[in-house]
Amino acid sequence: MFMVLDMKDKYEKYWGDYDTISDYVFFATLLDPQCKSKFMKVVFTQMLKAKNKDKKMSADEIESKARAKVINIECKLDKFFKTYLERSNMTSSSQQETPEEVVNFDDENEFFRSYMTSGSFPLTSSESQLQRYLNEDPIGFDKGYDILTWWKNNAVRFPIVARMARDILGMQISTVASESTFSNGR
Question: What are the sequence ranges of the domains in the chain?
Answer without folding.
Answer: 2-92+127-181
